[in-house]
Amino acid sequence: MLYFGIGIQVLVALCIAVHLIRRSQPVDPNHLAHQARSRFKHSPTHQNRLQLATALLNAGQAQEARSHFEQAASGASGITPEVLLGLARARLETRSPVPALEALAMLFATHPQARRQPEPTLLYAQAMAATHSPGTRTAFNLALVYSDGAAARCHFAEWLLRQSDPDDHQHAYVLFADITEHARHWSRHARSHNREWIRRSAAALKERMAHQSST
Questions:
Q1: What is the DSSP secondary structure assignment for residue 55, as one 8-state letter?
Q2: What's the domain range around 61?
Q3: Which residue, 208, 150, 159, is CA-closest to 21?
Q4: How far apart, in whole angstroms, are the C-alpha atoms of residue 68 and residue 42?
Q5: In whole numbers, what is the pLDDT of the chain averaged over residues?
Q6: Alpha helices by DSSP H, 74-194
Q7: How far apart are the first and last CA of the chain?
Q8: CATH (domain of 99)
């Protein structure tokens, strides 16, 4: 009976996720990157470089974004939290988790409050996961303390699925279902902002349903 109940819960969550994905209207990140590139071309200031680097990251152009963040980090404007956070994210997205951890270590050392902020703590957990560090679970749990948002839950759930313990797998699917169910109460803007996490959660739930139906 428990198995059946879990299956129904996953099916309902999956239906909700598909409906929400269709309703959300995401902003085109490539258009925003194009606008940022144009501003930087006409006025290559430090701030415009950071805006371009961030826009490129959001558009999936991590390698070029990393180049801009690396230049910003070595510039006269100094190492700011914005630069270090962007640099860590760009390094992580270009499959360089160890340098990403180095950037985060500098961020935490120079700005201790960053240890209690959602994005840096989640990036730290992701980088720990990418390096297969033994403290990864603790890092994700800490990230969830400071942000119970969809991104943190989705990344943690995906890491749990890669573990060997069946209890971790069950925990992962609970997190995926929570994301889709909570999304029902979000505004259109919130659904658009979290579209990727809804999509990934739906894909994981769909894969589980397919596996259950074939066994």
A1: H
A2: 2-214
A3: 150
A4: 16
A5: 89
A6: 81-93, 97-110, 118-130, 136-146, 150-161, 166-183, 188-193
A7: 16
A8: 1.25.40.10
Query: Which DSSP category does 134 fall into?
Result: T
CB 177 within 8 Å of CB 155: no
What is the Cβ-side half-sphere exposure of residue 189, based on CA atoms within 13 angstroms? 0
Residue type at position 153: R
Q: How far is CA 62 from CA 13, 51, 71, 210, in A?
A: 32, 13, 14, 33
CA-based nearest residue to 20, from 177, 214, 198: 198
CA nearest to 158, candidates 128, 194, 201, 211? 201
Domain count, the chain: 1
**Which amino acid makes up residue 180?**
T
Report the alpha-carbon distance of residue 124 to residue 140 in Å, rounded. Answer: 8
Supply the pLDDT for residue 79: 83
Torsion angle, alpha carbons of 129, 92, 62, 153, to 10: 40
pLDDT digits (tens, 9 = 90+) for 89-122: 999 999 999 999 999 999 999 999 999 999 999 9
Q: What does the pLDDT look like over 37-78, one tens digit per residue?
A: 999 999 999 999 999 999 999 999 999 999 999 999 997 776
- Cα–Cα nearest to 141, from 175, 92, 104: 175
Residue 32 tokens, joined: 């925003």
> Could you tell me the pTM of the whole model?
0.84
